[in-house]
């Protein structure tokens, strides 16, 4: 029963060209554009000998989940509630929670696919090495996806209409992109700023991914921050989410 | 055992009792109507039957089960058409039917159902592109797709054209002939009169009357209307002495009296006594419309 819901949501996701582009292609496209700038392929002393393109792969990896979790998913979920789609499903043996979990799987899956694409293109087109600590990288990646989905659920829980969801989503979207290092990679941030950013979900995720990419265990301080955010946001979402 | 049992149901929103002690029981294979003015508490009542709302007090049972506590089991035997709901805008009619069919243990085949509701030409149309009437027909199909024992239809034919409305009525009669119990919320008196075995008139959150359509008409004041053009004037004194008379109206020399069968007999006797001829004599039963207005007039006033 719930697999039918998931199959339907996957099918519907494929009918959203906007979401497909911004979640799946845009992060990699950004990487390709940045990688085409010759100086971004030079080693930089202030990035610890890394090239700009190297530090932008984790940024691209996080970008897909930020777009999916904060922009697309809250819109869809809030729309499902606003239009009474959840209500209609509540009268069937399948509870509306099936629709919610299907949505999370779809957007979580899309974010992971987008991350994989960025890693592959980075490796093949710009010789960015694959993460040297794969287990730690996967763990950080999964926690980051969970944090993005939980944050998106909170946005949806706080929004009565899709318009409000769009506004609240954007309010979280730009700070999240900043913390992930879209404008200034965390490695290049001043020490104090990096410390503060390290306590935000995507700042912690960026640092954990960077460490795992370099071959170190991501560090429990970053993973711990992520776990804490996931628990906190999930709790908030399930407390405030309204089915109608 | 009744298929649907509602007793002393109460539901309050921000201090206002929307449903205030509603009780009724629907027997197996019955088409039971809920009639009432806007805001009378009809939809809230059926939402409690569907398990969408938790009653503040009272008892609701569907096939002996509590729709809230036993939601999954009730949902398997109850098909619902909600007053306002949608499907995912980019889902096609066929995908919607297939999806909802997959939720139930013994679904009806969707193709004959779609054909019966005139949706065959729209199978590949996305929900968002359907007209209001097509959406309505799709939701009727979705209410029936799980082969339910009970269907709850809230404003069944709103938005349908007269032909589709009549087709839908026939469909509901066929569904009932198959042993399915129907709970119908409606605004249309014609629909209630044609389909319902019994009707509960709900007004101000309470059951104002519960009877067969004919019974409701009979019990309302002025259930029979007699009108004629008398060959000579009749005196007010004589008219006012008529038994069970509820209203007198004079217009262009024509008299219209509302009352009961007893009134009709007395009028005929009166005319014979005064040797007055009644031209263009018409005797008609009041309609459910009249009965409804009569039963719910207090709340409007």
How would you portray this structure in words?
The complex is a heterodimer of chains A (244) and B (301). Chain A is mainly α and 244 residues long. In chain A, 76% of the residues lie in helices and 0% in strands. Chain A has helices spanning 2-14, 17-35, 52-82, 85-90, 96-126, 134-158, 162-180, 191-197, 201-213, 220-240. In chain A, helix 2 (17-35) packs parallel to helix 5, helix 3 (52-82) packs antiparallel against helix 9 (201-213) and helix 6 (134-158) runs parallel beside helix 10. Chain A is globular. Chain A starts with a helix and ends with a helix. In chain A, 50% of the residues are buried. Chain B is an alpha/beta fold and 301 residues long. Chain B is 35% helix and 28% strand. Chain B has twelve helices and 13 strands. Chain B has helices at 42-50, 71-77, 93-101, 110-116, 132-144, 162-177, 189-195, 213-219, 236-240, 261-273, 288-295, 297-300, and strands at residues 4-13, 16-26, 31-35, 57-62, 78-81, 150-154, 181-186, 198-203, 206-211, 224-230, 247-251, 254-259, 278-285. In chain B, helix 8 crosses helix 11. The longest helix of chain B has 16 residues, at 162-177. The model of chain B has no long low-confidence stretch (mean pLDDT 91). At the A-B interface, helix 1 and helix 4 of A face helix 2 and helix 3 of B.
């Amino acid at each position: 029963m719930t697999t039918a819901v998931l199959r339907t949501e996957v099918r519907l996701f494929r009918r959203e060209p906007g979401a497909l582009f911004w979640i799946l292609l845009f992060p990699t496209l950004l990487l390709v554009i940045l990688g085409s700038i010759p100086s971004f392929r030079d080693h930089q002393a202030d990035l610890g000998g890394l090239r700009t393109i190297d530090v932008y792969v984790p940024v691209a990896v996080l970008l897909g989940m930020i777009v999916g979790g904060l922009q697309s998913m809250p819109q869809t979920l809030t729309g499902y509630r606003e239009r009474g789609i959840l209500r209609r499903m509540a009268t069937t043996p399948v509870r509306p929670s099936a629709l919610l979990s299907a949505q999370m799987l779809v957007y979580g899956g899309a974010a992971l696919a987008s991350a994989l694409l960025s890693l592959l293109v980075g490796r093949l087109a710009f010789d960015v090495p694959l993460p040297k600590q794969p287990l730690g990288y996967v763990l950080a990646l999964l926690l980051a996806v969970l944090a993005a989905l939980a944050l998106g659920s909170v946005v949806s829980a706080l929004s009565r209409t899709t318009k409000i969801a769009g506004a609240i989503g954007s309010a979280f979207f730009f700070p999240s992109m900043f913390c992930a290092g879209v404008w200034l990679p965390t490695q290049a941030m001043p020490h104090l700023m990096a410390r503060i950013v390290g306590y935000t979900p995507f700042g912690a995720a960026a640092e954990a991914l960077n460490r795992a990419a370099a071959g170190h265990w991501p560090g429990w301080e970053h993973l711990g921050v992520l776990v804490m955010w996931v628990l906190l946001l999930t709790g908030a979402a399930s407390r405030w989410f309204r089915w109608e | 055992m009744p298929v649907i049992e509602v007793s002393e149901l109460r539901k309050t929103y921000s201090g206002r009792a929307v449903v205030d002690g509603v009780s009724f029981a629907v027997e197996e294979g019955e088409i039971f109507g809920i009639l009432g003015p806007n805001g009378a508490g009809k939809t809230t009542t059926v939402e409690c039957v569907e398990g969408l709302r938790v009653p503040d007090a009272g008892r609701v049972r569907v096939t002996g089960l509590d729709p809230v506590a036993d939601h999954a089991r009730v949902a398997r035997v109850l098909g619902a058409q909600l007053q306002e709901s949608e499907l995912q805008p980019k889902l096609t009619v066929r995908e919607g039917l297939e999806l909802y069919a997959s939720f139930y243990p013994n679904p009806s085949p969707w193709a004959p159902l779609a054909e019966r509701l005139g949706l065959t030409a729209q199978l590949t149309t996305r929900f968002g592109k359907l007209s209001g009437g097509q959406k309505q027909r799709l939701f009727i199909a979705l209410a029936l797709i799980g082969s339910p024992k009970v269907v709850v239809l809230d404003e069944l034919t709103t938005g349908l054209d007269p032909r589709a409305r009549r087709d839908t009525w026939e469909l509901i009669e066929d569904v009932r002939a198959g042993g399915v119990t129907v709970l119908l919320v409606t605004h249309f008196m014609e629909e209630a009169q044609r389909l319902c075995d019994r009707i509960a008139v709900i007004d101000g959150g309470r059951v104002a009357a519960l009877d067969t359509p004919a019974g409701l008409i009979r019990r309302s004041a002025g259930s029979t209307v007699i009108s004629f053009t008398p060959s000579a004037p009749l005196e007010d004194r004589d008219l006012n002495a008529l038994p069970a008379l509820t209203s007198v109206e004079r217009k262009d020399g024509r008299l219209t009296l509302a009352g009961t069968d007893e009134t009709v007999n007395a009028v005929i006797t009166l005319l014979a006594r005064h040797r007055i001829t009644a031209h263009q004599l018409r005797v008609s039963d009041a309609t459910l419309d009249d009965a409804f207005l009569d039963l719910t007039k207090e709340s409007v006033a």
